[in-house]
Amino acid sequence: MDSALEILLFLVGVSLGLFVLISLLVLVPGRRSARRAAAGPVWFGGPAGSEHGASTSGPVLTDPPPRWAAVTGADWVTAAETAEPGRRIGGASVGWRAETRALTPQQADDVRHALTVAERRSGLRFGLFLGEPVGGRRHFAEKLHAALGAEAAGAVVLLVDVKGCALEIVTGENAGRRIPDAVCGLTAMSMATSFGVGDLAGGLLNGIGALAEQATARR
Asked: What topology does CATH give the domain 40-217?
């Protein structure tokens, strides 16, 4: 009887040990990948429609691909180095306290979808940059906006400094007529509230949707 019990306990212990080992082998590489992915900037809708640093969970069949989705070569940071911000730009700035996590592949797909819908409904150009600024945060956001070239006047650019816990919204001259600074400010505060509780994706989706809705109402 004692022998049977010892054998049973031995088998249970081996099973638990194998389970823990397999779990570690699966989870640790994933965590390392997440850290690597979050190390550099991520953007959607950059110059020439570029995208950088974001993963995808697979093909999205419910929507046509964004006009910028296939372009990956243009470097938004490099383009911003020589771009000069326009004089008639608006937007808002806001910060929060707690650092948020990077987007998952599924969340990146959701953000792509939100940007596509925003552009389709409003007729404006939307760009999103997730990363640390080069130099002053607001000035860098304005340079990212200016790097969109001829599209800048009708563009809305969101810079989310995840590590610095700050958000910048920049609107061009034409976009600003349809999305006043006061609306940008309220939207930014709402987004920061979500970011502050760790909900990066939710804050982005709600913010992009709110800005697009305002622009569409004044179209």
From this structure: Diaminopimelate Epimerase; Chain A, domain 1 (3.10.310)
Residue ranges covered by each domain of the chain: 1-38, 40-217
Lateral strand order in the sheet of 155-161: 51-52, 42-44, 125-130, 155-161, 166-171, 90-95
Structure tokens at 148: 């969109």
Strand partners, 180: none
Phi, psi of 169 (to 5 degrees): -115, 130
User: What is the crossing angle of helices 181-196 and 200-217, to 10°?
Assistant: 160
3-state secondary structure 2-65: HHHHHHHHHHHHHHHHHHHHHHHHHHHHHHHHHHHHHHCCEEECCHHHEEECCCCCCCCCCCCC
Q: Tell me the pLDDT of the chain (219 aa) as tens digits.
A: 556 656 555 554 546 555 545 454 444 444 443 333 346 899 999 998 899 998 776 544 334 444 444 445 589 999 999 999 988 999 999 999 988 888 999 999 999 999 999 999 999 999 999 999 999 999 999 999 999 999 999 999 999 999 999 999 999 999 999 999 999 999 999 999 999 999 999 999 999 999 999 999 987
